Amino acid sequence: MPAQTSSTPAPAETATPTAISLQGIVKDFPLRRGTAVRALERLDLQIGHGEFVALLGPSGCGKSTVLRMVAGLEQPSEGEVAVEGRSPADLVRAHRLGVAFQEHALLPWASARDNVALPFRVAGRPVDRTRVDDLLALVGLTGFEDARPRQLSGGMRQRVAIARALALEPDVLLLDEPFGALDAVTRRRMNLELARIWMEQRITTLLVTHDVDEAVLLADRVVVMTGRPGRVRHVQQVDMPHPRGTEVTRDPDFHALVDRLTAMLDDPEPTAEPS
Amino acid sequence: MSSPVAARAGDRGLAVAGVLAVLVLAELIGRTGIAGVGWPPISEVALYLTESSAQQLLGRALAATGAAAAAGFLLGTVVALLVTALGALLPATAPGLDRLAAVLHAVPLIAVGPLLITIAGRDATPTLVAALASGFAVFIAATSALASTNPAQRDVFSVLGAGRLVTLLRLQLPAGVPLIVDGLTLAAPAAVLGAVIGEWFGARRGIGVLLVSSMQNLQVNQLWAAALTAAAVALLAYVVLVAARDVVNRRFS
């Protein structure tokens, strides 16, 4: 296994300057009286500009914690997180991050259009109405601009959430199980949609998921994490050309890859493995 | 389709039956005189209310009390919301503000009244007591409303780089509107009762004044009429705000 961990083509990384860099990340969550649970153990991860990386791992492996640290919502106990060479807090202050969670977290009192316009208002910028409507068109919601979230289906709400994340043309897009609450059919359709949207935007993207198909379909690189405490177990380059449509999902190579990564998730890994 | 409607009609029928039962009971107690001269038959109180002199008297009192209660309700609500907003914008002050509100509320309004008379005068006292009584309900509702925003929404605001003021105005306040309106439904009757208590200490007119003078002059029917009027107004304020709450809930959730 340690050999596979370093299977990432190192030259390619030095060629593209890193957009997101996590180095020696340790995260402890304090429990009662001095005890703590270690969620992440010396995790290293570099993501290049315009790269789509999927973080795959069993539940409770700390993959969401990684994303939350990149988003500035959590601080590492040890190690350093840098986004575009700055601290996540700097990027947040500059309104350069876009995020979508499993919970759509739309404002229920606002229309789809106002929800997508929210980042403009938060940043104190004039709302670019054309941009907002273009984004709603991009996620396939033309005609639903004035609908309120509860009038939309689960998949449509997630589309609005993704359009909102893209509103200010962020440097980095963070997706935490954005389709985790959807049924399998809708989820697959949303994956294909996201693949198309991403092709048009080419934003540096970190996707956290436990769905292997989703990770392989969307990502340039799939990073498999170990169980708690989470570390990088394996990095898988996915070389199939973008945009990946339904034909990719029928490709035997795709399935072979999915099977390999799934096996890795199922396999109880020797977490005590020295690194 | 018809069963919820039928159920609601049934509920309403039960409510009407309950009110009627209470009225009949009160009438019986008054007629038999088992509660003494202080408890007249309700029909006599109703008859008294048909007299034009009584109507004028109660009308004037009601206007004064209503004005004091409305002004107090407005003042209490505005101050409570401003204090809540201060706590949200400067989180360090929030525990102190909570304690201050609790202490203020722990002082009985009956004890505050004479104090206010000497400080603010007899005209302002009903309004101020009404503001105190209603403001606390609004403050408690508003602080819990602002704290109850969904964590995922808060995370989105954090990542978008929203400051405290933007988060307050664009997330916490709109998300908290239904809970704040809940607080208002409790604050409105509290304001009416606060105004009556404030008048008790020597306002020029008002339901509270009428209660005191009827009691001292053994005007039993007038006493009951004044008390029932105060209760009816408090109830009306509650009903109006509950209706408003339904509209608001549809808009904000």
From TrEMBL, chain A:
Keyword presence, Transport: yes
Record-level Gene Ontology MF annotations: ATP binding
Keywords: ATP-binding, Nucleotide-binding, Transport
Listed SUPFAM superfamilies: P-loop containing nucleoside triphosphate hydrolases
InterPro entries assigned to the protein according to its UniProt record, in alphabetical order: AAA+_ATPase, ABC_transporter-like_ATP-bd, ABC_transporter-like_CS, ABC_transporter_ATP-bind, P-loop_NTPase
ABC transporter domain location: 20-252
CDD domains: ABC_NrtD_SsuB_transporters
SMART domains named among the record's database cross-references: AAA
Protein name (Swiss-Prot/TrEMBL): ABC transporter ATP-binding protein
Organism: Pseudonocardia aurantiaca
UniProtKB/TrEMBL annotation, chain B:
Primary site of residence: membrane
Keywords (A to Z) from UniProt: Cell membrane, Membrane, Transmembrane, Transmembrane helix, Transport
Membrane topology (UniProt): Multi-pass membrane protein
Record-annotated ABC transmembrane type-1 domain positions: 58-245
Entry's localization field: Cell membrane
PROSITE patterns registered for this protein in UniProt: ABC_TM1
Pfam families recorded: BPD_transp_1
UniProt xrefs under InterPro entries: MetI-like, MetI-like_sf
Parts of the chain that traverse the membrane: 67-90, 102-121, 127-147, 179-203, 223-244
Source organism superkingdom: Bacteria
Membership in a protein family: Belongs to the binding-protein-dependent transport system permease family.
Record's protein name: ABC transporter permease
